[in-house]
Amino acid sequence: MKKTNAVRILDRLKITYELVEYVVDESDLSAVHLAETARIPITQVYKTLVLEGDKNGYFVCIIPGAEEIDLKKAAAISANKKASMIKVKELEPLTGYIRGGCSPLGMKKQFPVYMDTSAFNLDTIYISAGIRGMQIRLSPEDLLRACNANKSGLI
């Protein structure tokens, strides 16, 4: 398996994780489809979203894969009045990642990270390893530490 920036960060921090490979379907990059393909419970799959606030710029949210983000909550949590998802074409230049392979770890620049509190009801969760076709399984507490994230209610 290929070592990604996200994996290198976890190695450097001596965080225990497991890599899970799956077959990518370019026509459906949704977290729900990923969970089905990888045979992972959708309740454990978390997606990384990049947003832009009207006052404080870019920030990252980690939410359950089957859920939609509440933009009003995300704005309030990040001390913005409004927040919106960035356009897909902005994702790679801003983060270094492409849609379907965006990890909260190892972005080009460190942005504030907000992690939905639902993750902390689970022993382990899955996040993107930074490329399509690979997920990282780790504890929510370890991800929180690795991302220097904040616990937040985002859904």
Question: Concise description?
Answer:
By secondary structure, this protein is α/β, with parallel strands linked by helices. The protein is built from five helices and eight strands; from the N terminus they run αβαββαβαβββαβ.
Write the layout of secondary structure elements.
Blueprint (H helix, E strand, L loop, with lengths): L4 H8 L5 E4 L9 H8 L7 E8 L3 E8 L6 H7 L5 E3 L2 H8 L17 E4 L8 E4 L5 E5 L1 H8 L2 E3 L3
Parallel strand pairs: 3-5, 5-8
Antiparallel strand pairs: 1-7, 2-3, 2-4, 6-7
| Count of runs of 4 or more consecutive helical residues | 5
Structural class: alpha/beta
The CATH class is Alpha Beta
Unreliable stretches covering 5 or more consecutive residues: none
Name the shape in a single word: globular
Query: Strands of the biggest beta sheet: in what spatial order?
Result: 4-2-3-5-8
At CATH level 3, the topology is YbaK protein
Report the C-alpha radius of gyration, rounded: 14 Å
Count of DSSP E strands?
A: 8
Superfamily at the CATH H level?
YbaK/aminoacyl-tRNA synthetase-associated domain
Q: Which CATH-level-2 architecture? A: Alpha-Beta Complex
Please give the share of residues in helix.
25-40%
Overall tally of domains: 1
- Give the ordered list of helices and strands: HEHEEHEHEEEHE
Percent of sequence in beta strands: 25-35%
Rounded to the nearest angstrom, the distance between the terminal CA atoms is 33 Å
| Main beta-sheet strand count, sense and barrel state | 5 strands, mixed
